[in-house]
Amino acid sequence: MREVQDHFFRLAKDEGYRSRAAYKLMEIDERKRVLRRGDRVLDAGAAPGSWAQVAARKVGDRGTIWAVDLKSIERSGYPSNVRLLQADLGEVSLEEIGGELFDVILSDMAPNTTGDPSGDHFQSVRLCDMLLDRAADWLRRGGNLVMKVFEGQEYPTLLKRCGRLFDEAKGYKPKASRSESVEMFIVCHGYRGPRPAPSEAPSDFLPKRKPSSGWKDRDD
Fold this sequence. Notes:
Rossmann fold; alpha/beta; globular
């Protein structure tokens, strides 16, 4: 397993990516078709910045990437369509990141791990719930979301919540993830938009399926 890890580490260095995490997003997009040319993308918890590198290549010159993290991200090497913001994502308004809804939200965020698998799991779920809470502020209807979570007790509940908010939500673990890692990526397609009150909901908005009853740098 160490050979696989070293392979992606060396590959990232040879190909100019800031971490081996780049290959996780590449595989997710190749398999799940999350990013398109011209997309407007929010990279949540972006440091050290390899996902923004991949996303910028995928969306092309007509697309835009907003990379947001508590830590600063080195500007050099990015094309002009990558915008950087050092801020607490939970407090960022849409106006601070361009004022337009995004086509895609990407998140490789993880909590500062403590060595307690259960506690780390719950903290990672909390970060994912924050993204879902803010989706109505940031993501257009029909948009896509990819976010990392540590598997554990609340993973099925989180996946069900995603299924209520998106047309499709499935877990995926790319080959570039360490085999011993508990990380999983939830890949969501087709955001349904903020849910209006029942009295205000038009018939064509009703869900298609019955509803079910501080981060660290990326792992590189």
